[in-house]
Amino acid sequence: MRANSAAADFLSRGGIAVCLAVLSWTSPAAGAWNEIFADGFESGEISMDRWAGQAANPLEGITLAESSLGDPVRTGDFGVEFRLALTDPVDEFGKRRSELRPRPAAGQPPFHADFGPLYRYEFSLRLPEDWSPDGPEIVAQWHGAIDLDSEGNPTEPRRSPPISLRTTFLETEPGSEQYLPAWDARVRWDANETTAMNMSTVTSMNLLDPTDATNDLGVWVDWALEVRWDWDPNGAGVARLYKDGVLVADYSGPNAFNDARGPNSKIGLYKWDWDSLAGIQLRVAHYDDVRTLIFAEEVPAMSWPGITLLALGVLGLAAIRRPKLSARK
Ligand SMILES: [Ca+2]
Ligand SMILES: [Ca+2]
User: Fold this and answer.
1) Closest listed ligand to the CA of 148
2) Quick one: 20 and 145 in the same domain?
3) Which of 37, 50, 223, 303 has its CA 20 to 30 A from that of 276?
4) In this structure, are 95 and 224 located in the same domain?
5) Ligand nearest to the CA of 196
6) Domain co-membership, 21 together with 146
């Protein structure tokens, strides 16, 4: 009797557990990361079908890194090496950059995110051991797309990226003139549809305060940025930055410009100030394992009334089986 009763209790509790499992499995809050883009360069090439390049030096700015040649790679046999030199020619805006933008489909234009979904951007980055601390330089950025009029002319000025991961410096003590390499990350946003020509409508802030990067030189660092792009101060914008899986910046608030199109994404080097602290002549950095993902809300297996009926059904089954077990004594 006692055994049968215990069995009935177990079945009943089991039924409830099944119900809870079903409910949590199909909860609307559940979801999954779906891959939009991934390249670890294991095809042995930097495919222009998969990437759009911007290289001040077309020959040496962006090249394949090969482990067989002793180049640093994060995984597999290949990665990518970016170089940017003071001697590189400047672009039409007087700037130097070596950057790659992923294409979501072969030969298609570079990826631009939508406003609304949650995205996750991943990449591994290795700065060389001899990286001298200097004024800010961008090592990954997410750039807004300026709005255009009906004839395709810009209606607003070129702006700095809404989110950027940068290298910078920290002074060991105020006035010491001894500097450490550092990371930081910036956010810029503007809720106005048309950004003022003098940028007075743009808000700029730190996502990650300057953080000592001394122990990150000569080793791979796995970065991930989770973002829900939104310019609205009352909106749903978030930006979470992970370094080697550790959350190092967690921001809720506006993180974009009010544009018709959402931001793109780039890996690589962009240095605008070549007359700063360390008198840099050349920057070299390696990247690998680049992925872009979008968070998809899981479509419930059935609607909520259906789940409730299923839950009641499982509970009912447990109740029906209880007297049966008791009667068998
Ligand atoms: Ca690789
Ligand atoms: Ca705009």
Assistant:
1) 2
2) no
3) 223
4) yes
5) 2
6) no
